[in-house]
Amino acid sequence: MEDQPLQDDKAARAQARAERAAAKAQAKADRADERAKYFEEKKNVRSLAEIVENRLLRDLGSSLETHARSATFACGGSLSFKKLKDGQDEEAHEAHTVTATPGENEATAAKTAESSTKSDAQQPAKKNSNTPRANLTKDIQICFGESSKCITVTFSRHGVSAEDLQQLVLACQPAPFGRGGEEVLDEGYRKAGKLDADAFTTSFCPYQAGIVDVIAQLLVPQTAQGKHTRSIKAELYKLNVYSAPAGKFKAHVDTPRSKNQIGSLVVSLPALHKGGELAVRNAGKEMIFDWSSSAKSQTAAKAKVKWAAFYSDCEHEVYEVTSGHRITLTYNVYVTRGIGHLAGAAAALDSQQLPLYQSLKDAVDNPGFLRRGRVLAVWLTHSYAHTNKHQNFLPSSLKGADMSVYNTARALGLKCEVVATMSHDFDYDEDGPSQFVDRTFPGFKQDGSGSAVIGGKKFGYKDINGLVTWLNPERDGKRKKVKEGEEAKPKQQLFREVQTAYMTYGNSPSMAIKYSRAIMLIRIPPYLKRGQEAPESIWEGLKRDLTEEDYEYGDFEDYYGDEDDSYYAESYGAYCSSEDDHDEEDYSSDEEEEDEELGEDAKAGNGEAVGEGSALPQGDGETGGH
Ligand SMILES: O=C(O)CCC(=O)C(=O)O
Ligand SMILES: [Fe+2]
């Protein structure tokens, strides 16, 4: 009997133990449950945040695409010969006159890739009596030949005489072009005659004719947000004659002669011809400039001077001339420092009025957008001339759509940097153009040690993956080869423009300057730091963001997965090259310096290649082209 209480006691203890164990198991299960719930919730919050963020990124990407497609990349106009009446003042006369077709913004002037037809780009979109119209008050003379027996050919409101035309055609030499960095004469690709700029003089002046002003307004517009003004300089390059039958120049880009070269200008002198339309393409769009006598705008009796200007990285071609002679003067167009807002109220583009500005602002104002801070990377629409020495290039040379992306980001106080992405090595074999592009890491040049170099700083592969968000895909996807002797289908031609392979065809052999695809990097600061002063450079900003404590972000602490921030901070330290690893000057995008460089180029008064003669795979040296 005595054992009974003991046994009861034991059983009670066992039961208590079992209960405790059960409670413990329950508590553990509850905790696991709670934990699961907590993580589930966290995942939901995260996926909600991701959904918001992805939507903002998508909106921003499509805004960017629309922006690129609607931007101006070419413009054109025409000039009539008008003799001044006795006593009429030339300036007063000019003040009432100027016509231009501002490229893509005029729906009538451009056709999309899908509906590309030949249109008359010179026809002013709207008749507007306030629109000034430029006229030529004097005939245009071209002089060539040895100084002792110089021949003068005159273009007037009556066109050009058959005899003059014959002399000019005879004076020309076959025009070569650049293929894979070499000078080639191949009439299947280019059939034209040329006079080099030093072999003739002309009385025609694109400044006097008002063309340079129009180009400057349309291709390098001032922005309300821009600190410095930009202008352009046009330099006579060649006189070309495209004659029937078969005068043509197939798809190519114009070889840049300086890193400040932004565009090309073609001026067509009045000589009767048919065919020979100039097609210029960009971002899936095409503009056709038809200067033939069968063009709609041609009021048969009046000979006119017609012109077109375009960013020189845009693919373009001259279709076959089927009758007569098509005579052109070509100019290289460089960006230079402007003279400033003289009246203090220059007509400037306001980036804040662009739809892209609103999309970027909506994103930046949203706490769910790249909350911890990030770098946005944007493939630019245009390609840029740069030297091997300068991987970073000057924002002042940005073209149309790209310049407004830059200004939009700047208007929101965001730090931007523009970097050239890779070097292109060209090759040409019997199969057509081929090209080697270093794509070890898309968009970033790698050095031997496997780290990427951006803006002169080295980063580990993983750093970049973790820090950069791409806003748009690179444009030059698949390359379509057009075999020699085979006609490219119109669509094939049209879309080759977005691929790098076409760069194999230049209008002269490549020099020390080459085109490169470029990226704009935009720093999005951590949410709580938005609106604060921008850092000196994107990478300075990143370094700061990553090394500072960011407990304020609470639940978002592991927003970017399980990678630990300290990893970035440490690896930044490890990978970031020391100051003396690179020459600051080479990579600086400081506006003061940029200003100086443009100034110097303007002072030099020429478009000589920067870094000419450096050892580059493409070779160098001017050997003629157009
Ligand atoms: O004559 C034209 O319209 C364009 C010529 C051209 O593309 C060139 O000379 O590079
Ligand atoms: Fe060209």
From TrEMBL:
PROSITE patterns: FE2OG_OXY (PS51471). Residues 233-335 form the Fe2OG dioxygenase domain. Gene3D superfamilies: q2cbj1_9rhob like domain. Residues 7-35 have a biased composition (Basic and acidic residues). Residues 106-119 have a biased composition (Low complexity). Residues 578-599 have a biased composition (Acidic residues). It comes from the Eukaryota. Residues 1-35, 86-132, 571-626 are annotated as: Disordered. InterPro entries: Oxoglu/Fe-dep_dioxygenase_dom (IPR005123). Residues 120-132 have a biased composition (Polar residues). PANTHER family: FE2OG DIOXYGENASE DOMAIN-CONTAINING PROTEIN (PTHR33099), MYND-TYPE DOMAIN-CONTAINING PROTEIN (PTHR33099:SF7). This is Fe2OG dioxygenase domain-containing protein. It comes from Saxophila tyrrhenica.
